[in-house]
Specification:
heterotetramer; A: 321 residues; alpha/beta; Rossmann fold; 7 strands; B: 368 residues; 2 domains; seven-stranded mixed beta sheet; five-stranded mixed beta sheet; 14 helices; binds thiamine diphosphate; binds magnesium ion
Chain lengths: 321, 368, 321, 368
């Protein structure tokens, strides 16, 4: 049986992500958050399975759909919520919004709204870490997440080739929800053989097709060990998943009829959060749920009460001194 | 203080016979529909063009009507897809390629600048690249640094490209038709805040010739040239100024390259003042070019130098939070104050225009 | 035994390419050609094997190293030489130079000096031809050539995916001379498995490792048949080859010691032009050689005697009317 | 009529103690060598940096000295490699990324504009991108449309980037050192025709601060501001003008962004005339910006408007054939004629400067 402490920890983080995003969806209509939100509801097991085994000073790079990984990597929650509210206490002082969450202290690299763009940047970060390790003897690792759509951009291939060529300490994760906005995979990928293609770069690949949080976590634990001990260069992991809500915004858009409701049902039945909930003592579970609710209330209050940035902030940080 | 209906009139004048009031986005859709029906070589493609939202509605129904060979979505591969458009254009087709944000065009600059702009010249007229690149710009609603850029000056800089940025439904349709029929690559800039604005559009087919500026309102005190959505802000400014008896002539260049300096200069000669409002950063921008050209023309013609000024985006990355975002953009009030100062002198700080009623910016619930 | 007519034809074209390029190298120091030249000496069998089975209205797209394919596809020789000389009678009126040869009438698409750039453009041309064939019932084919370096650009993958997705009538050829300027493949490719990678896009691939002109031609004949009959979408062919001269310019640069002289020797021993010469009757061979020499003399004279463009040509064709 | 040695003096003045005459390219190499020795976080990479030619010699010997981790070549993947540079910079390293042609930077505009320029601002100071992008521009020798562009205005347009284009060995080394130490992305533009020009360069380490223009020759009749290789042409023009008693003050902005308008305006106030010679197209270019700023400053300070003019590339793609190529670029003679006309009036067509002796352009045997 899986260690209850681990289950509880994974459950807590996944629940926090889920509840916080649902809360964001709930308050979105008030325009308190005047910034596009790309929610990860339904996809939490990837963020949590991937980030749980990471060290604080490992680095995660992600996309505009970044709440889940930001939270899972230990990003500051108050800073996140305040950022969504456009407040000066936000993780980027209100200048970045939902699509560009960042928390360097906790290893969140800074998300980008342009698909694919962070993949080479993460690769460069890994190059720096490879060099750094030669001094420190300690190998930090970068995890670069992208969507299935992200793998269609040329820079994805360019980055994989370079990372493989130089055996960089980086794990590429494709969160494959088979959608780019509303366009299904079939209209964008010539074939489904992404992992096969990646192995032609001479790198290890893993395909996880059920979003099982333990499988993802175990794969990561092994991958990290190999990379830290220098026995592997980059590793590629493709994780199937399903986006429950619309591409951007707070709504369930299954009424728009561009995707199959049966598939949705299958993924709901396979929901990893419910699964973990079932694995826990009621007592423990309710403890966690209370804590999550409390946290969300706290950060929401913090965001609400924080001030907006002053006018002169418009001109700070254009150039670094 | 300045309703949308009034704006429409300001744009389109009173209703002429043979026109009807339609939205900018529908005017665009009509252009595609008519041109695709007219010329089987016209096709339209890009991310999301065939989903149920259809690029804010501008492509809805087109795949049903013209089939999957002529209206189709693509993988997320801006660079290659632009090359594909260029190749099809060289082969004699007339592709319309769509980007839902101008920011993403930074991924296909190589194809646009090194191939599309240069092929006709480099191959000495042997090939033509009749390509339309639709590209949306936006503002507001916390889109942030990478979803807010208007990069027309980069394209104006490069010989071989044309750049259009219509600000009303009439010009949107007419310029799109002209762009599709043009034998050169045309960067066609659409502002999201304009999509739902209505204007009088002829029922009969028509084209708005590229390279002609449009005088929207006549006035004798100052010439305000404004780009894309800034036309609406300039019209608001004009209203503010009217209240204190200053008459602004508002000009929409419509085509940013080639630039119709004749129309602009005729106005400037009359008013003696030129205030250029760009919907972009200033440095090396359309504003720099228009002011420099104005100055050059005055020197050439040995006429006295008008007062010249410009406004545009703040020289920063666009922040997402509303209070800073509001400061990032010129608006009707800041434009009016600037115009006022150009006329009354910089010290004239006495006047403040009233706060506007709700505008399309407040009404906007995000493009999301 | 291979058909003597075919052998003679292939020999003639390959010899013409070789001799013309060597003549260019010879006169280069005079500055009559004030434009960078990227010679294909040693690589002729690819251009000729690939282009021989094409129809006049099939299209070839190539790189700045474009003399060989321009000639093999039937590009106008007078226009080519005059273009190199910067004369108004050049195939592009002297505006394009050696790197941008073009002859649309004969199916040469217009070369680009930016690596990779013509790959998607050729793909778009194939898209047009796919549509055209639905009207005409006749499937023209595009051949897109690139170097090994070209396959490292993101647009290469983006183009392959799109071509495979839409089953476009295009043949991608990689002329793999294992060099990008002076940088060997090993410093640029994570692995050698390019064909394997291409097949993960669900397309047919062929790897020809000896530059055998007949093998290349046969592979093309089959590929063309399949594409013309609609039984195959894009096809990928990788051809090994060796660049005898320097990357750009007229010289043999083996003294620069960045590549192996034994390999050079092997490729010289395997020279397809000498091979074809040996297969021909002396009589036929000498006939051809005479003809080639004469042709070169004629086009050189034409280029020399043609006028430079007039000043006002600077401003023609900036915009198409 | 104007030898290279004279040009060097014009650039660097008489030899000062503690300097020696070295080539631009060697000055660059020294900058890398010194900075890499000083700071282990500096590294240099890009296509061809470690081959035997070593980027025209500017990187020769560096891999031997600093190892393959700090000096290495890459696959042909400009887009991703720029992202790699940005990522390493964010991680605290100081990458120098090399492009052998500025035209190829069109492949990495997304990374430079959407990431490098914006990260510091967008992440509110949490990250810095201390990145140097070396990029070569060229002219002549039939390089043609895709190997001749100078696109600095595109980068000047975008807040968050700095742009430098040194025109002599002293500034090449000093600015490179400043750029490497700068905490922002710096686009560093090197002109191939300058590589072999020599200048007096201090033996001791030094940096040339970014954002300071340099007055190369003093003169009272006209201010000529010239960019990169056009500085040499402007100095030739100055010589021509001297022969007919016109004294030109030649200014090299050195840094194109941020722009040192103070130095330029101090000169313009003295001469009353500003002729801007860009090494690029004019439309929305550095020339538009500098003339517009000059005009704005004159208006702000209520001083009378100077005569303003500009020259640059012809508004066409660059042709390869020499006769057309020569017309494409301004040169010492055409600049001199323009300056003469600004002073004597447009009708003054009487004067033609003598044909120059061989210049570095004629001496050039191609970068090939
Ligand atoms: C370069 C670029 N092209 C297009 C877009 C518009 N866009 C935003 S999200 C998205 C879909 C991306 O799909 P995927 O990578 O699978 O991520 P997901 O949204 O499914 O998490 C698109 C096309 C963009 N942001 N950037
Ligand atoms: C995008 C781009 N990057 C770099 C260059 C500089 N360059 C010119 S040729 C070349 C090597 C290309 O190698 P390959 O594709 O193998 O073709 P080959 O020269 O071997 O025929 C490079 C790097 C370029 N022209 N374009
Ligand atoms: Mg997806
Ligand atoms: Mg090669």
């Amino acid at each position: 049986m899986t260690d209850q402490i681990v289950v509880a920890r994974l459950y807590k983080t996944m629940l926090l992500i889920r509840q916080l995003e649902l809360r964001i969806a709930e308050i979105y209509h008030t325009d308190a958050i005047k910034s596009p939100v790309h929610l990860s509801v339904g996809q939490e097991s990837i963020a949590v399975g991937v980030c749980d085994p990471l060290e604080k000073d490992d680095i995660v790079s992600n996309t505009y759909r970044c709440h889940a990984t930001y939270i899972a990597k230990g990003g500051d929650l108050f800073g996140m919520m305040a950022e969504l509210y456009g407040k000066s206490t936000g993780c980027a002082g209100g200048k970045a919004g939902s699509m560009h969450l960042v928390d360097i202290k906790n290893g969140v690299m800074g998300a980008s709204a342009v698909v694919g763009t962070t993949i080479p940047v993460a690769t460069g970060y890994a190059l720096a870490m490879q060099n750094e390790a030669k001094m420190t003897g300690r190998q930090r690792v970068v995890v670069a997440l992208c969507g299935d759509g992200g793998t269609e951009e040329g820079c994805f291939y360019e980055s994989i080739n370079f990372a493989a060529l130089r055996k960089l300490p980086i794990i590429f994760i494709c969160e494959n929800n088979r959608l780019a906005i509303h366009t299904p995979l079939e209209k964008r990928w010539a074939t489904n053989q992404l992992c096969e293609r990646m192995s032609t770069f001479g790198i290890q690949t893993h395909k996880i097709d059920d979003a099982d949080v333990f499988k993802i976590r175990d794969t990561m634990i092994n991958a990290l060990a190999e990379i830290r001990h220098g026995t592997s260069g980059p590793i590629f992991i493709e994780c199937a998943t399903y986006r429950w809500l619309e591409h951007v915004g707070p709504l369930d858009d299954h009424y728009d009829d561009y995707r199959d409701k049966n598939t949705y049902q299958l993924w709901q039945d396979n929901d990893q959060i419910s699964r973990l909930a079932r694995m826990l003592d009621d007592q423990v579970r309710m403890e966690i749920e209370k804590e999550v609710t409390l946290t969300i209330a706290q950060i929401e209050k913090y965001a609400e009460e924080s001030p907006y940035p002053a006018a002169e902030e418009l001109y700070t940080h254009v150039y670094a001194s | 203080m300045f309703t949308q209906a009034e704006e429409i009139k300001a744009h389109a004048g009173p209703q002429k016979t043979g026109t009807r009031l339609i939205r900018y986005v529908d005017a665009l859709r009509e252009a595609f529909e008519e041109e695709m029906a007219r010329d089987p070589k016209v096709f339209l493609f890009g991310l999301d063009v065939d989903d149920h939202k259809g690029i804010q509605g501008s492509t809805v129904g087109l795949q049903e009507k013209f089939g999957k060979d002529r209206v189709f979505c693509t993988p997320l591969s801006e660079d290659a897809m632009t090359g594909v458009a260029i190749g099809a254009a060289i082969a004699g087709y007339r592709p319309i390629h769509v980007h839902i944000r101008m920011d993403f065009m930074l991924l296909c600059m190589n194809q646009l600048v090194n191939m599309a702009a240069k092929s006709h010249y480099m191959y000495n007229g042997q090939v033509k690249v009749p390509l339309v690149v639709r590209t949306m710009i936006g503002r507001s609603w916390g889109q942030g640094g990478q979803h807010s850029q208007a990069l027309h000056s980069m394209f104006m800089h490069v010989p071989g490209l044309k750049v259009v940025a219509p600000a009303n439904a009439h010009d949107a349709k007419g310029c799109m038709i002209a762009a599709i029929r043009d034998n050169n690559p045309v960067i066609f800039i659409e502002h999201r805040l304009l999509y739902s604005t209505e204007g009088y559009v002829p029922t009969q087919p028509y084209a708005v010739p590229l390279g002609k500026a449009r005088i929207l309102t006549e006035g004798s005190d100052i010439t305000i040239v404004a780009v894309s959505h800034m036309v609406m802000e300039a019209l608001r400014a004009k209203k503010h100024l009217e209240a204190i008896d200053i008459q602004a002539e508002v000009i929409d260049p419509v085509t940013l390259w080639p630039l119709d300096m004749d129309t602009i200069m005729a106005s400037v000669k009359k008013t003696g003042r030129l205030l250029m409002i760009d919907n972009a950063w200033l440095t090396c921008g359309a504003s720099s070019e228009i002011l420099t050209r104005a100055m050059e023309i005055c020197q050439e013609e040995a006429i006295s130098m008008p007062a010249l000024a410009r406004m545009g985006f703040a020289p920063t990355t666009c922040p997402t939070t509303r209070p800073l975002e509001n400061l990032f953009y010129p608006d009707g009030r800041t434009i009016a104050v600037k115009a006022y100062q150009m006329i009354k002198g910089k010290q004239a700080k006495g006047w403040e225009p009233p706060v506007s009623a709700k505008t399309e910016i407040d009404a906007f619930k995000g493009p999301f």
